[in-house]
Write a structure and sequence with these properties.
Among the domains are: 2-50, no CATH class; 73-133, 3-methyladenine DNA Glycosylase II, Chain A, domain 3 (Orthogonal Bundle), CATH 1.10.15; 306-343. The chain has 11 helices and 4 strands; from the N terminus they run ααααααβαβββαααα. Strand 2 and strand 3 (173-174) form a beta hairpin. The strands form 2 sheets. The protein has a two-stranded antiparallel ribbon. The chain has helices at residues 2-6, 26-33, 45-50, 69-75, 90-98, 111-122, 154-158, 211-253, 257-262, 270-297, 310-325, and strands at 140-144, 164-165, 173-174, 194-198. It is mainly alpha-helical and 343 residues long. 42% of the residues lie in helices and 4% in strands.
Length: 343
């Protein structure tokens, strides 16, 4: 009887000597059943093997979750996505720490407590915050001066957690409950209408930021990353479609070599086009010359044609030479007028 009592299930529904992390609830069991590699039949040997042999409930299963070091490091970061650590987001910073490419004291929002958490996970000593990446401070929230905002959307594009709402040429505003205080919206604002105001009093680091808020910010950042990737892919697809639609008529109009050989050769019209272009330019110059003469007769001619500098006269001579080469100037108009040059 003593042996039976020793192995009897406890009232919590867990088998003896089972840790809480080893017990998964009904929802987790259902997620295992819906896995494509697992049949929904409860009599499947694989599903039966997942159940703990001593569990008092048929819906208690043993789950083994293997997580990388980078994932565990990321769980300990405040998820403000501020880039102050020198990396574009918290996840790349966690991967750099795991790879030994970055120190674990480069996160100002996490502060001293964040360093202690990472040191405990890594088995390393607690070290001071590297202030070259910023200082530990009360958490701020971005506030937009709506009377000055011009609706440029640059702050919306910079916000890593989609905490700013608005539209082009419309007033923007910050959802204070979603703002992580990352400061990333301040530099791109062209009218300097964003201020970062502390909202946690004297509390700094993890004292000013909860794990629930960090998890929510991480979720919003991940969703934004997926959305931006989807929008970029859609934009590239549209650009490729436009390029293909423009190239299709050109390919259809381009004759093959056999067609070109069979068709009679047509005279090249490039010379005619160049001649027409020169005629148009010459007519425009003639109109400008007549207008200049009329203005001179009225005493409203240009005032800067005398005593020009050598550099300006050299530019005039070069322009006249180009016109002569193109056949756009008269011989009598070529060359500088006597007395225009200065030594």
């Amino acid at each position: 009887m003593a042996d039976k009592a020793e192995h009897a299930p406890v009232e919590t529904g867990r088998a003896p000597n089972m840790q809480r992390a080893d017990v998964v609830d009904t929802e987790a069991f259902e997620s295992v059943q819906t896995h494509p590699d697992v049949r929904r039949d409860h009599t499947d040997p694989f599903v039966q093997a997942l159940r703990h042999p001593h569990a008092s409930s048929p819906f208690l299963v043993t789950a083994t979750v293997s997580r990388t070091l980078a994932e565990r490091i990321e769980d300990l970061l405040p998820q403000t996505q501020c880039t102050k650590c020198g990396y574009p987001a918290c996840r790349p910073y966690a991967e750099a720490i795991a790879a030994g490419e970055a120190s674990y004291n480069q996160c100002p929002p996490g502060g001293a407590e964040g360093i202690a958490r990472l040191a405990g996970l890594l088995g390393k000593p607690v070290i001071p915050l590297d202030t070259t990446h910023g200082v530990e401070r009360p958490r701020p929230v971005a506030v937009i001066d709506e009377n000055v905002c011009i609706g440029c959307t640059l702050c919306m594009q910079a916000c890593p957690v989609d905490a700013i709402v608005g539209a082009a040429k419309q007033m923007h505003t910050v959802i204070a409950q979603l703002c992580t205080g990352c400061d990333l919206c301040v530099p791109p604002c062209p009218v300097d209408c964003i201020a970062m105001l502390p909202v946690t009093g004297e509390r700094t680091g993890w004292d000013a930021w909860s794990q629930d808020e960090a998890d929510a910010a991480r979720t919003r950042h991940d969703r934004r990353t997926v959305r931006l990737a989807r929008e970029r892919a859609a934009a590239e697809a549209r650009a490729n479609a436009r390029q293909a639609s423009r190239a299709a008529p050109v390919q259809a109009e381009t004759p093959t070599k056999a067609q070109a050989a069979a068709e009679p050769q047509m005279p090249v019209a490039s010379e005619d086009a160049d001649a027409k272009k020169r005629a148009i330019i010459q007519a425009a110059l003639e109109r400008a010359r007549r207008k200049k003469e009329e203005m001179a007769q009225l005493g409203a001619g240009p005032k800067n044609t005398e005593h020009v500098s050598a550099a300006v006269q050299a530019q005039i001579d070069a322009a006249e030479e180009r016109r002569r080469r193109l056949g756009l100037s008269d011989e009598k108009a070529s060359g500088p007028v006597d007395g225009d040059k200065t030594a």
